[in-house]
């Protein structure tokens, strides 16, 4: 099972799982009632089924994900992060090559077992408007 033993590790595990096309490992990094924004301008989705569906679509794009953490701020069992990412080399549903970049806004929470999981995952939440 994929477990993050600090908020700073969650992105590494998520990217590794994405690049391996391992949706169950990605989904394991979310709380059961987590909220995710699946694409720019999309409505947020909540819960394992909706998040899994969104992750399946994302993994279906292919390509390789790289990232650069900008910061993690901790307050007790919560942490707020911003990560810059790039998804390159995949293709959209029309066959066009993808070079997607953005800056995330993420909130994670320490679980009773000491691991960390996403509460909010907004992949484009820190992009300039």
**Contiguous helical run count:** 3
How many runs of DSSP E, i.e. beta strands?
Answer: 7
Q: How many structural domains? A: 1
Helix % is 10-25%
Q: What's the CATH C level?
A: Alpha Beta
CATH T-level fold name: Nuclear Transport Factor 2, Chain: A
Measured by DSSP, the beta-strand proportion falls in 35-45%
Low-pLDDT parts are: none
Q: How large is the radius of gyration?
A: 14 Å
Spell out the helices and strands N to C.
Answer: HHEEHEEEEE
Terminus-to-terminus distance: 37 Å
In CATH, the architecture is: Roll
Q: Which structural category fits the helices and strands?
A: alpha+beta
- Overall form: globular
Largest sheet: 7 strands, mixed
Structural features, described:
By secondary structure, this protein is of the alpha+beta class. It has a single domain (7-122), classed as Nuclear Transport Factor 2, Chain: A (Roll). 23% of the residues lie in helices and 43% in strands. The protein is built from 3 helices and 7 strands. It has helices at 7-19, 23-27, 48-59; strands at 30-36, 45-46, 64-75, 78-91, 97-103, 105-110, 116-122. Strands 1, 2, 3, 4, 5, 6 and 7 form a 7-stranded mixed β-sheet that branches. The radius of gyration is 14 Å and the shape is globular.
Concise account of the structure shown:
By secondary structure, the chain is of the alpha+beta class. It has helices spanning 7-19, 23-27, 48-59, and strands spanning 30-36, 45-46, 64-75, 78-91, 97-103, 105-110, 116-122.
What labels describe this entry?
single chain, 129 residues, alpha+beta, Nuclear Transport Factor 2, Chain: A, seven-stranded mixed β-sheet, 23% helix, 43% strand, globular
């Amino acid at each position: 099972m994929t477990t993050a033993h600090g908020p700073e590790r969650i992105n590494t595990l998520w990217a590794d799982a994405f690049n391996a096309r391992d949706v169950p490992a990605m989904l394991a990094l979310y709380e059961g009632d987590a909220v995710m924004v699946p694409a720019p301008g999309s409505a947020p989705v909540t819960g394992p089924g909706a998040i899994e569906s969104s992750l399946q679509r994302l993994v279906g794009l292919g390509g390789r994900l790289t990232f650069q953490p900008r910061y993690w701020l901790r307050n007790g069992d919560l942490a707020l992060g911003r990560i810059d990412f790039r998804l390159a080399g995949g293709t959209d549903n029309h066959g066009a090559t993808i070079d997607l970049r953005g800056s995330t806004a993420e909130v994670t929470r320490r679980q009773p077992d000491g691991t960390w999981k996403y509460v909010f995952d907004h992949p484009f939440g820190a992009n300039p408007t």
